[in-house]
């Protein structure tokens, strides 16, 4: 090993070739390629997100519409075909929201609503937060009960 052959590891040094602000002889002195005066030539300048050079920004040009109802109650929907699969797999005749949460069909803080897609062939007693009209009719036609919590 000789001192004149020592080199840093490949890729460890980054040299972009522009040493700005190191005198006129470097060609990048004086204003350091930033032009004359103005905010962009000053230290500490950072452009605001969405700034378009003084043009009205996109997020202010596009009109606002609609609203978000703060009283909305969001339900986790479970269809009758999923209930039928669940009943066939577990052989349960009474289902409540704790049972559905325990078997991974809903999360513990979800409000559950039974929806009417699919066929139900088993007699099941279901106790959850809400039912669609079609689901309630299908459950009761098979002799089960649909109880709202």
Question: Can you describe what's shown?
Answer:
It contains 4 helices and 6 strands, in the order αβαβαβββαβ. With 149 residues, it is α/β, with parallel strands linked by helices. The strands form 2 sheets. The protein has a 3-stranded parallel sheet with strand order 1-3-5. Strands 2-4-6 form a 3-stranded parallel sheet.
What tags apply to this protein structure?
three-stranded parallel sheet, 149 residues, elongated, 20% helix, alpha/beta, single chain, 15% strand
Summarize the structure.
20% of the residues lie in helices and 15% in strands. It is an alpha/beta fold.
Shape: elongated
The whole-angstrom Rg is 34 Å
What is the subunit arrangement here?
Answer: single chain
Helix content range: 10-25%
Task: Describe the protein's topology.
Elements: H1 58-61, E1 75-79, H2 80-90, E2 94-96, H3 97-102, E3 111-115, E4 125-128, E5 130-131, H4 133-141, E6 145-148
């Amino acid at each position: 090993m000789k001192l004149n052959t020592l080199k840093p590891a490949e890729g460890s040094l980054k040299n972009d070739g522009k040493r700005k602000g190191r005198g006129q002889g470097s060609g990048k002195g004086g204003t350091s390629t930033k032009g004359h005066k103005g905010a962009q030539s000053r230290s500490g300048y950072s452009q605001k997100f969405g700034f378009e050079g003084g043009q009205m920004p996109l997020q202010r040009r596009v009109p606002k519409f609609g609203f978000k109802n703060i009283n909305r109650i969001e339900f986790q929907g479970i269809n009758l075909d999923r209930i039928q699969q669940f009943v066939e797999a577990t052989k349960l005749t009474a289902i409540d929201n704790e049972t559905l949460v325990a078997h991974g069909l809903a999360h513990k803080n979800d409000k559950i609503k039974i929806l009417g897609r699919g066929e139900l062939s088993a007699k099941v007693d279901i106790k959850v937060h809400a039912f669609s009209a079609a689901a309630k009719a299908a459950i009761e036609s098979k002799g089960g009960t649909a109880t709202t919590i």
